[in-house]
Every structure is written in C-alpha cells, then in structure tokens.
Write a structure and sequence with these properties.
Blueprint: E1 13-18, E2 22-29, E3 32-39, H1 45-59, H2 64-67, E4 73-78, H3 80-86, E5 93-98, H4 104-107, H5 119-123, E6 140-143, E7 146-147, E8 153-155, H6 159-171, E9 176-180, H7 189-201, E10 212-214, H8 215-218, H9 224-254, E11 260-264, E12 270-272, H10 284-300, E13 305-310, E14 315-320, E15 328-329, E16 333-334, E17 337-338, E18 343-344, E19 347-349, E20 355-359, E21 365-371, H11 390-396, H12 414-429, H13 433-458, E22 467-471, H14 475-482, E23 488-491, H15 498-504, E24 508-521, H16 532-552, E25 561-570, E26 577-581, H17 589-607, E27 618-629, E28 650-658, E29 663-671, E30 680-682, E31 685-688, E32 693-696, E33 700-704, E34 710-714, H18 720-739
Parallel strand pairs: 1-4, 4-11, 5-6, 5-9, 9-10, 13-22, 22-23, 29-31
Antiparallel strand pairs: 1-2, 2-3, 7-8, 11-12, 13-14, 14-19, 15-18, 16-17, 20-21, 23-34, 24-27, 25-26, 25-27, 28-29, 30-33, 31-32, 33-34
C-alpha cells in the first residue's frame, strides 16, 4: 500500500491458520466477522489458502477479486516449516565455521540424544540415537579466523582460505551456505566478509547463486550450538518456505490484493512475510490461539486460563496466568534440534481427531500419536483411510452427525467407521463396537487431560484455579473428556477457527533481541552497578532498527508502543527469568532499582522467594525490545438474557452411546446458533454448531452466557476434584470415629 496501514480503526483483515487437516479462515470486514474452514491441500498449501478466501468471499456475497482490494492486512500462520523438516525435504547445505570447531553441530549438547523425544522414548535408553544430521560432515569446513568474547580480532580472516574451502563445499554439492563463527553476535565483521566473498564468487545474476545465512543475523544471542542450529534450520527450510509462501503471495496479488502480508511468529509477534526467518514460524498457530485466549480472558474477567486446542493431528496446551502470557521457552527444541529463538511456551502431543487407534500385541489399546491427517483421513471420510481414528469413534457413538459434518459439505460414511472399529479394535478386545469406540474416546481424552495436568502442576499451579477454553475443531466435542479437575469450560462459537481468530485480534508486534552480558548487581555488596551507557546504547540501537522496519512495512512508528524485557539471573544459578522492565532507559538509581525490584518479584513468583540470591549478584544476559502497534479490536457483543428453557433450539433426537450410562440412549440434539443467552441444558445432550459439535454427557450442564458463549460445568457433586476431597474428608471422619 502507498498509505500507512490503518491501526486506529478496525482494519479489514484476513487471518489464515493452516493446520494438518483444515485451513482456518477468519474475515473481518467492516467490523463483522465471517469464519470458514477448508481442507488443507498438502501438495500445495496455496491452493487451500485461496479456496478458503474464495469461500469466505462467497459467504459475504463477493467474489475474491471484489473482496481482496478492500482488505488492509493478511496474517498467516502455518506449519509448513515443521512439515518440510519432518519430511527432510531440504537442500544440501554447506557449513562454514571457525577452524577447530568443525564438529560443533554434530557433537551438540549432551541432551541431543533425547531432544525432541517423548517420555516413553527417553526411558528406553538402549534405543536412543543422536538425530541424523541435517548437514553431513563432509559439507562442514573451518576457516582461519578468530574473534574473542569481547569482539576483538585474535586471528584475522584468511580470505584465500575462505575461497578455497568454499569451492570445496560447492564441488561436494552444497546449494546453500550457513556461516557461524565464534562470537559473531558480538562482532559480526568476519561473518559479513565471508558472505561478501561468497557473493563475489557466486553472484546473484549467476545460475549458481547460493543463498547465505549468517548466524548473527538470525539470532544475535549467546550459545554457539543453538545459534548454529537456528541458522541451519533457517537455511534448510528457506527454499520450501519461499516456494509455498511466494506461491500464496503471487495468487493474492493476481487477485487484486495490495495490502500488508504478515507471518505470525512463535514469539507472539508478527513480521512482514519476506522478513521472517523460517524458525520463527514454527508453532505460530498455537501461539495465535494463546494470544487470542489472553485477549478474551481479559474481556471476560478470567485471570487464569488453560487453552486446549484439539485439531486433526495434535492437542496444544498453553496457559494464561494472572492475565499474562509471558511464559517462554528460551532454548526450545524444533524436531530434534535445540535452537536459540525465544518462543511462547506451549506444549503439543499427538492427539486429535485424526489420531489412529490400534491394539498392540499385548492387547493394549493405544490412540495416537500417529495421525491419518487430511489425506486419506479417518475411515469415515471415505477417502481411502483404513485405520480407525478418534473422529470415527465420535461418529460411531452418535455424537457427530454424518450428514452435518463440516457444515454438511463433507458427508461421512458411518458404516465404514463401524466396520473399521469392529475389525481393528472391538474383535481384538472382545467388546462391542460401541464399547470399543467409547474406549478410543476415553484413551484420547485421558491423554489430553494428563497433558493439561502435567503442564499446570509443573508450573506450580492447580487446575481448580483455572478456566478451560476448548478450541479447535474437536475441542468442544472432547471438552467433557479432558476438562478433568477444571471446574469451568468455555465453548466459543468460533472455536474451530480460534487460532485464526486469535491472530485477527493480535496487535502488530515485533520483537528484537540482543545478547549482552552486564553486571546488574554487584556480588556480596548488593550494589546496583549496571553500566547505564551500555544499557541505553543497546536499547537505542534496537529502537532504531525497529523504526526502520516499521516504516518499511507501511506502519507509523509514532503509533508504536515500546516495552523492554530483560533476561536476568542471580549469580551461582542457571535459572534465567525474563522480566518486564518498567523503564526503557536507565537514567537514575531509581530506574535501576525499579528494574531490579521487578526482576526479584517475577523471579520469586516463578521459582520461590527462597531461592532469591542477592549476595550472588545479578547478571543481565539479554535485551528484548517489544514493539507494539495497537490494532483496534471489535468489541465482544452482549445480549439480554432469556429464559433457561432451550426448547427453541432443539432440532430432534438421536441414539447416542454414553459410557457413563453403559448403554445407548435417545439424546436431545440442539443447534448452537439457536440457543439464546440464559438457556441451560443438562446432559446427556448434543449441541451441533456449523463447524463443530459440543458433547454434554450425563453429570454436566451447559448454559449460554450473555456473550453467547457456552459454559460447561459439573452438576453439584460431580466434579472429580470435589469428589476426591469429599472422599478424603469421609475417610478422615471414619478414622477419627474409630480412634475415639
């Protein structure tokens, strides 16, 4: 666009989240939202993208050519980077490092043996192997140069040595080059010069042009192995990402789009599509869901929220604690490699609608992590799938209407699902088809509930203190199964596209990081000795870079809000805590004291006040500048409450199997869109929405609040946590009576 992007008004936007099974689409046009789902097209993601946009345009009575010129911004999150990595579809990469450190990426860290493995795999030590390297040893060379930890040149760069070894790499088949020299994030001169040499040898206009990724440009942070692997992954995924994203961009341009195209980052921010490293896109969808959860939690008055996202392939969990989402993974593992990018903390397990069920040789039923995906998909899709899945079980149990799935656009074959469960599960276990389907559902629900309990308890919280947001296409369908000890679950009408909706209400956020080790508090004396000049210079440099990028993206720096976060730790400890700094610059003792006080408060909350170690001193490791361009969000509408009777939304009845009852029962079916605020229904019941289904089992109650959200609660005495407490109290009373 020629004009600045509108941020003070509600922007017309398209938000897309490409998952393994479906592509989710949210259109915000003139303040009104329209949601659409389209099947993901793994062979070419741009096809599914355009299909979703065309469906959305049709829904508002426009052609795609009429819609796109009215759109100000497109935000895109995708798993294409991870998918390509899992499939090992990358180019041969050459690696240039400091002479003597050629084995760095192959030696790795000690944890490399188990990085990225699930717990059961880690326990089987005899089967552990290091991951097969993305770069073979013959494509690694060390060049004569050395820079020390303070940025001083110890050994000048031998340029002829670089040219000779570069030609060796190219002769061995390298088609991209990663440059990672020691301490380059302190002084990047040698890495920059090596790139210039590569450009001189293989120019941009030559057929043999070679992409070059410099480690300091990807992540200017301490940690040589992690910095190197971040650069390697970016180089490895760059071509696949470029092909997929550029194809999408070209199709949008051909259809008349002239606005901004942003990629959602796993840091909670976003950036121009052509300024996004591949590693920043990993897990972008769940992060969008987390940011959306934080927004709705604030508006709805919930301080602690669990996001439970059940898709076709995975179940993603993230937490909003005390209305904040600043929980990060500082050195996350992508596939099998530890990298040095800061990601919002989410966990993912292989559990979803497409999770495949099977019986092992010991007669044990397992569900997932392997998934049927979108092609061939569950057996009931009738697209060639033969292995029973979670979705097949939901269809057999009667919860999903075969004729109404995917808004009626995708009829399901219930008979094939029943046969697959009978042949592959029921007959092997000696149970009925209904009981086998209920067992499949129970296993997947328990897996998801365990993931939530693990995540909440490991952070030192209790599930009873949280509210659960059930999102994703299968989230409302399985909410009653993974809700466990959480007293309240919330179902959104837009739950199936919640991650895309989350990006639609996200402010435009850019993050900039710079590693710099500074002493903040002197050991023993506990005196604040932070070097103000170095501190302020680092921040000013990041602000200047941020302003330049904002202008290049048609954003007005005057509308931006700047906030600073610091990675700090106590001397003698390894636990780094990212802390919100109350000031952008330290210009007085009061500013330094305020920054330390905030660190101590957040550190104490995260790790306990008992481990605060002032005598050990405090060290600053990393600066993080968060630049936010606020985007006006549509308000959450409120509606007057009606009566409790939901009869007006009832569409009929259907035979459903309820494990709680041990039998099938005639079950009332309701239409979600017709339920009125104030309506209340008690299970067993099934509520059908356009793109999802809410299952309300016996012992639960669903009522519609003033925002038309579904609130799932236990009936009195049915909450398992409360039952456990009551049982414990009864045992205590009996013991007291016996002793008396």
């Amino acid at each position: 666009m020629n004009n600045k992007t509108k941020t003070t008004a509600v922007m017309n936007s398209i938000d897309i989240d490409v998952g393994g099974t479906f592509t989710d689409f949210v259109l915000t046009l003139d303040g009104e939202r329209t949601i659409v789902k389209a099947p993901t097209t793994p062979h070419d993601l741009s096809v599914g993208f355009v299909n979703a946009v065309e469906s959305g345009a049709e829904k508002v009575g426009l052609t795609i050519e009429e819609l796109l010129p009215r759109i100000d911004i497109v935000r895109y999150s995708t798993t294409v980077a991870l998918n390509r990595l899992l499939q090992r579809q990358g180019p041969r990469i050459g690696f240039i490092t400091t002479e003597g450190h050629e084995d760095m990426i192959h030696i790795g860290r000690g944890a490399q043996w188990v990085d990225g493995q699930i717990i059961s795999e880690r326990r089987n030590l005899c089967m552990q192997n290091k991951p097969h390297p993305l770069i073979s040893r013959d494509l690694v060379v060390g060049v004569k140069e050395r820079i020390d930890s303070k940025g001083a040149v110890v050994r000048p760069l031998d340029e002829e040595d670089v040219r000779r070894k570069l030609r060796t790499l190219m002769d061995r088949g390298a088609r991209a080059i990663v440059v990672c020299t020691l301490w380059s994030f302190v002084n990047p001169d040698h890495e920059k010069r090596i790139r210039e040499i590569i450009r001189d040898e293989y120019k941009e206009f030559h057929v043999g042009f070679v992409p070059v990724v410099m480690s300091h440009a990807v992540t200017a942070k301490l940690g040589e192995y992690e910095r190197a692997m971040t650069a390697v992954l970016d180089a490895y995924l760059q071509h696949a990402m470029q092909t997929e994203i550029c194809a999408t961009w070209d199709k949008l341009r051909d259809k008349g789009y002239r606005g901004t195209f942003l990629m959602i980052h796993n840091s909670g921010g976003s950036a121009d599509i052509f300024k996004t490293p591949a590693s920043r896109t990993f897990n972008g969808g769940p992060v969008s869901g987390l940011m959306g959860s934080a927004f709705f939690a604030e508006k709805l008055g919930y301080r602690n929220v669990i996001m439970g996202d059940v898709g076709g392939t995975s179940f993603d969990v993230a937490l909003v604690v005390e209305s904040g989402v600043r929980n990060y993974e500082f050195k996350p593992v992508i596939d099998r490699w530890m990298v040095n990018v800061t990601m919002m903390q989410t966990i993912s397990i292989g559990a979803g609608g497409g999770s495949i069920a099977g019986v092992d040789k010991n007669g044990r039923l397992s569900v997932g992590p392997k998934s049927a995906g979108s092609m061939p998909g569950p057996v009931c899709y009738d697209l060639g799938g033969t292995e029973p899945t979670t979705t097949d079980a939901d269809v057999v149990l009667g919860y999903i209407n075969p004729d109404g799935y995917f808004g009626g656009q995708m009829p399901l074959n219930k008979a094939k699902a029943e046969k697959a469960i009978k042949d592959k599960i029921a007959d092997k276990l000696g149970v009925s088809v209904h009981e086998a389907a209920a067992m499949i559902r129970n296993v997947i629900d328990e897996n998801m509930a365990s993931a939530i309990k693990r995540e909440v308890h490991m952070r030192g919280y209790h599930p009873e203190e949280f509210v659960l947001f059930a999102i994703g296409g299968a989230g409302p369908t399985h909410l009653c199964g993974f809700q466990a000890d959480v007293p309240v679950g919330v179902v959104f009408p837009a739950a199936p596209v919640f991650c895309a909706m989350g990006s639609s209400i996200m402010d435009i956020v850019h993050l900039y990081e710079q590693s710099k080790r500074l002493v903040f508090m002197e050991p023993l004396t506990e005196k604040l000795v932070i070097d103000r000049a170095q501190f302020n210079a680092a921040v000013e440099e990041m602000i200047a870079r941020a302003n330049q990028e904002l202008v290049s993206e048609n954003l007005d720096p005057k509308e931006a809000k700047y906030s600073l976060e610091l990675d700090m730790l106590y001397g003698g400890q390894v636990n780094v805590k990212r802390t919100a700094c109350p000031v952008l610059k330290i210009e007085s003792d009061a500013d330094a004291q305020a920054a330390y006080d905030e660190f101590e408060k957040e550190f104490s909350a995260a790790f306990s006040p008992l481990v605060v170690n002032r005598p050990g001193g405090v060290y600053l490791d990393n600066f993080v500048l968060r630049v936010t361009v606020p985007v006006k969000k549509p308000p959450i509408p409120e509606y007057p409450l009606q009566g409790k009777d939901p009869a007006g939304a009832k569409t009929g009845t259907r035979e459903c199997y309820w494990r709680e009852l041990g039998k099938t029962a005639v079950t009332a079916i309701y239409q979600f869109e017709k339920l009125q605020p104030g309506n209340e229904l008690v299970g067993p019941a099934v509520v059908e929405a356009e793109l999802t289904t809410v299952v309300v089992p016996p012992g639960r109650r669903l009522h519609i609040d003033k925002h038309r959200l579904g609130i799932m609660e236990y009936l009195p005495g049915e909450n398992p946590a409360q039952k456990a407490l009551n049982a414990k109290a009864q045992r205590t009373q009996r013991a007291a009576k016996a002793s008396a």
